[in-house]
Design brief:
Number of strands: 11
Number of domains: 1
Shape: globular
CATH superfamily: Spore Coat Polysaccharide Biosynthesis Protein SpsA, Chain A
Largest sheet: 5 strands, mixed, barrel
Helix content: 25-40%
Structural class: alpha/beta
CATH architecture: Alpha-Beta Complex
Order of helices and strands: EHHEHEHEEHEEEHEHHHHEEHHH
Radius of gyration: 19 Å
Strand order of the largest sheet: 6-9-7-8-10
């Protein structure tokens, strides 16, 4: 076990594959589309996009391609309680992990990581954002299974899913990779966040792929990356998770979050751990992070024949908003 944390004995479960769904974000860039007529801004993960439930529920179903609901956790924010409690997440209470505050994606991953490792020291994790649209789920599911197999075989790697670009999009992050090796995994040469259009074209010409922020890793490997960057924070949070009674954990965590810095997982953890990173390229699957009104509009155009049907269906299946009720032109007007 790296550094000072001592994990417990492995669980008796034969299967140690877990999924972690990230659902604590605010979705501020999409607020022009996700604000109700009454002026309430709904975080986009609690909205739908023409499916059978919210984007968060879509992510939970996506996770079942590699594990079960019993080994699926979701991290949420306490101040979003009215939204996530209104959804049927099919999860037990211990699998819904509440953050007192939003302190960035790194701390949003660290808390559930420690909770999972406390329950299963041998856990391998698939980490999925809860605000993505995927047109061809079976294509992505195949790559998710490959990523999980890869970390079982090579436990010292963080395998990031890179999406084959449809176009040079300056609103996304890019991963520039080295030549493919026999395993099909590419070492990372460079991270580029939101380049200009010209630079995005050049990156794609060099084999660059979109950074999906979907990744797989052994829990211990992720923990090592966190300890290298923020050992004191990890130690203090582990003390709370592993030793405090459940009824006082939230109060202690609230104090910790108040004092903690904002940390971005890509910038502050991944980019500082380049030797741990590999990229698995996903074939074209109609993926979008729905991060801006323009990307929502482009995703709507992908499902143009289907969203007319979605618009006619009852809105009762989703408690909040269905973004497929919009038209592509509306997304540009509101953006």
């Amino acid at each position: 076990m790296p550094h000072h944390l001592q994990l417990g004995k492995p669980s008796s479960s034969v299967n140690h594959d877990w999924a972690l769904i990230l659902a604590g974000g605010e979705g501020s860039r999409l607020r022009s589309l996700t604000t109700t007529p009454g002026g309430v801004a709904v975080p986009k993960q609690f909205c739908a996009f023409g499916g059978e439930g919210s984007l968060l529920q879509d992510a939970l179903r996506r996770a079942q391609s590699v594990t079960t609901y019993e080994r699926t956790c979701v991290v949420v924010s306490e101040h979003h309680r009215s939204w996530w409690q209104a959804l049927d997440l099919r999860l037990s209470g211990e699998n819904i992990i509440e953050q007192p505050l939003n302190r960035g994606t790194a701390i949003g991953i660290l808390l559930p990581l420690l909770r999972i490792l406390h329950r299963d020291p041998e856990a391998g994790l698939l980490v999925l954002p809860s605000d993505h649209f995927v047109r061809h789920e079976s294509v992505l599911a195949s790559s998710l299974r490959v990523a999980m197999r890869s970390i079982r075989q090579r436990g010292d790697q963080i395998v990031i899913l890179g999406i084959s670009p449809d176009d040079p999009d300056p609103e996304l992050g890019y991963l520039v990779v080295e030549e493919s090796c026999a395993t099909g995994l590419h070492p990372v040469c460079e991270f580029v966040e939101k380049p200009s259009l010209a630079v995005a074209r050049a990156l794609i010409a060099r084999g660059g792929v979109w950074n999906s922020f979907i990744f797989a890793a052994r829990g211990r490997t992720l923990l090592r990356a966190f300890e290298d960057r923020a050992p004191d924070l990890v130690a203090e949070m582990w003390e709370i998770v592993s030793r405090c009674d459940p009824e006082i954990q939230q109060a202690r965590l609230a104090e910790l979050y108040e004092a903690a810095p904002d940390l971005d997982f890509s910038r502050d953890i991944l980019q500082r751990s380049p030797t741990l990173l590999s990229v698995l390229t996903v074939p074209p699957c109609g993926w979008s992070d729905l991060g801006t009104p323009r990307r929502v509009s482009e995703a709507l155009r992908q499902i143009q024949p289907a969203f007319q049907h979605a618009r006619q269906r009852s809105s009762e299946r989703v408690p909040f908003l269905d973004l497929a009720q919009l038209t592509p032109s509306q997304t540009y007007l509101t953006g």
